[in-house]
Design brief:
This protein is of the alpha+beta class. Strands 3-10-5-8 form a 4-stranded antiparallel sheet.
Length: 289
C-alpha cells in the first residue's frame, strides 16, 4: 500500500471470523514483527494490520491530529518521521487487553478514538485507575524509563490506537530537545493528575466523589443539566473507589439533592444543592490546574 508521501506500508490481512477470540493472540505477536521493521528498505515506513471489519491504514488527517498533540507539536520533521517510521495505526474492538501490568513496554500508545481503561489487580481484586480518552497517550513513563507497566490497559469500546515502538520514542527523546521538553511536560501533567485523584479519594466521601464527578460531566457537556454517562456504572464505581452496590446507594443519596437517573441518563434538577454538597475544589477538579 502506497502513502501520499510515496512511502509504503506493509499490510497483513487478518481474516478470521472470530476476531473477539483471536485478537489478543494476534496482537501479542506484533513485537516480533516490529523488531524487523528497521531492517527493511527506507521506502517502507511501517506496518499495520487490516481486518475486513476492523482495520484500516493511517489516514493523512489522522497523522495531522497526531502531529498536533503537545507531545509532538514542536519536534522537527525528521524526529517526527523517525517516530512514525515503524508506527502503525489500528482499530481494536471492545474489551481487548492492549498492555498487561508487569510487562516491559514495546510501544507508546495514542488513543485517537474510543476509550481505554487503565486498571490494576491484586489479591483477587481489580480496580480502575484512569480512563483515557482521545487524543491522549498512555503509559509514557514506562516507555521512557524502560520499566514494567504498573497498570494494564483494556479498550472500553471500539478504539483506534496509534502504536509507536518504544525504542523509537527513546531514541528521539535522547536526540530532540523539543521532544524531551514535551515528554517532561506530559509526565508532569500526569503526576499532577494522579495527585488530584489521590486527594479526591482521600479527602471526600463516596457521595462527594460522585457529586463532583457529575458536576465535571456537566461541564464537559457544555454545562448541560442533562447528559449521559459515557462509561458503564460498574466501571464508574471502580473508578471512584466503591463497589457497584455503594454507587447505587450514593445515587440514591444524591436524589435528595436533585439528581435523577434513568439508565445512563443523568438529570441535575437542583444544581445549587448539588454544588453545596460537592464543594468543588479547583486544585482537585479543574483539569487545567
Amino acid at each position: 500500500m502506497t502513502r501520499v508521501d510515496g512511502t509504503c506500508l506493509i499490510v497483513i490481512k487478518h481474516d478470521t471470523g472470530h476476531v473477539e477470540n483471536n485478537w489478543n493472540d494476534l496482537f501479542r505477536q506484533l513485537p516480533i514483527l516490529i523488531n524487523h521493521i528497521n531492517d527493511l528498505p527506507e521506502q517502507i515506513c511501517g506496518l499495520t494490520f487490516i481486518d475486513p471489519a476492523l482495520g484500516s491504514a493511517m489516514r493523512q488527517d489522522e497523522l495531522t491530529l497526531i502531529r498536533a498533540l503537545p507531545l509532538f507539536a514542536d519536534i522537527d520533521e525528521e524526529s517526527f518521521a523517525s517516530l512514525m517510521h515503524a508506527a502503525y495505526f489500528q482499530r481494536f474492538p471492545e474489551s481487548v487487553e492492549l498492555i498487561t501490568e508487569g510487562d516491559v513496554p514495546d510501544f507508546l500508545h495514542v488513543v485517537v478514538a474510543g476509550m481505554v481503561e487503565l486498571t490494576t489487580a491484586g489479591n483477587g481484586r481489580e480496580t480502575v485507575i484512569e480512563i483515557v480518552r482521545p487524543i491522549e497517550t498512555f503509559i509514557l513513563a514506562a516507555v521512557v524509563r524502560d520499566q514494567p507497566y504498573l497498570m494494564s490497559a483494556r479498550t472500553l469500546d471500539a478504539s483506534r490506537i496509534l502504536m509507536i515502538p518504544s525504542r523509537d520514542v527513546k531514541s528521539v527523546f535522547l536526540n530532540d530537545t523539543a521532544f524531551a521538553r514535551a515528554v517532561v511536560a506530559e509526565l508532569a501533567g500526569r503526576y499532577r493528575g494522579m495527585v488530584k485523584a489521590l486527594k479526591n479519594q482521600k479527602l471526600r466521601t463516596s457521595v462527594e466523589r460522585l457529586a463532583n464527578y457529575l458536576l465535571c460531566c456537566s461541564q464537559q457537556n457544555g454545562d448541560s443539566m442533562v447528559f449521559r454517562l459515557v462509561i458503564e456504572k460498574r466501571t464508574l464505581a471502580s473508578l471512584l473507589g466503591m463497589t457497584p452496590e455503594n454507587l447505587s446507594r450514593a445515587f440514591g443519596t444524591l436524589a435528595k439533592y436533585g439528581i435523577a437517573v434513568q439508565g445512563q441518563e443523568v438529570r441535575i434538577e437542583r444544581p445549587a444543592d448539588l454544588i453545596a454538597l460537592a464543594r468543588p475544589n479547583m486544585l482537585i477538579d479543574d483539569p487545567e490546574s
